[in-house]
Amino acid sequence: METMLRNAFQHLGKSRTANRMARKYGLKFGAGRFVAGETIEHAIRTVRRLNGEGLMATLDHLGEFVGTEAEAAQSADMCIRTLEAIAESGVDSNLSLKLTSLGLDLNEETCLRNMRAILETARKHGNFVRIDMEDFSHCQQTLDLYRRLREEFDNVGVVIQAYLYRSEQDIADLAAYRANMRLVKGAYKESPRVAYPEKKQVDDNYRKIIRQQLNNGNYAAIATHDESVVEEIKGYIWDRGIPHDKFEFQMLYGIAEDLQRRLVGEGYRVRVYVPYGIDWFGYFMRRLAERPANVWFVLKNLFR
Fold first, then answer.
1. What range(s) does the Proline dehydrogenase domain occupy (predicted)?
2. Looking at residue 88, which CATH number applies to its domain?
3. What's the pTM value of the predicted model, to 2 decimals?
């Protein structure tokens, strides 16, 4: 049953029709638990509250269905406006984004042009931009563009997904770029030809690539809500004397909030991934697919 639910949510998350319906009805069905509103103002207010609790943030203006260069330019403008709002408000946040929202599926040069404008703005304000990883079909393109950008900018990072067989080699190949990486398990439905099909295999590889990145001496953003992973990595860091400024823990807005605050209390750097915007539906569906138990929360909101 859980697998059926997960597959259904992943399918819905890719539906343009479902996304349009979600825009019409807004954040009424429980998505507000995971999405910090539809405007920059809502997002900044959320980040300011998180900062007050000792948490850093990364803002993501949600947008996954870009079909024209004009739409890609509009998405890039929203990223730039987000960076300007962060600078103006003084909150502690950087920016996360998806290359498909900047025109990657149209042509690489459009995407690259938009990314350069965003990174120039971030550099002007002393800020940092994280390129989110998407499904396997975009993986190589994403890493190729990251390499090109890394030759020009030192304020850009990328994401590696543990469920892909290729990830260990990708980390090794990117070590020469001193890549600042967010390490995640992965949230897309992939073929067993390219991804580990069993949860234990993904979990084991996740622990392996975290250690690999830490051993490389490059910055590791360890994105997990799995307390067993957190405790194991804390022990690994302690045993090897890895400085706290070489890594951080990252978690999603609305999830594992007690763990976030406990880690802050223990002196660890913790960053919360805070999405916002009107194109929230695909992101919301992936959160439900990751943990179908969240459906109960949604159903309660439906009947309020």
1. 43-298
2. 3.20.20.220
3. 0.86
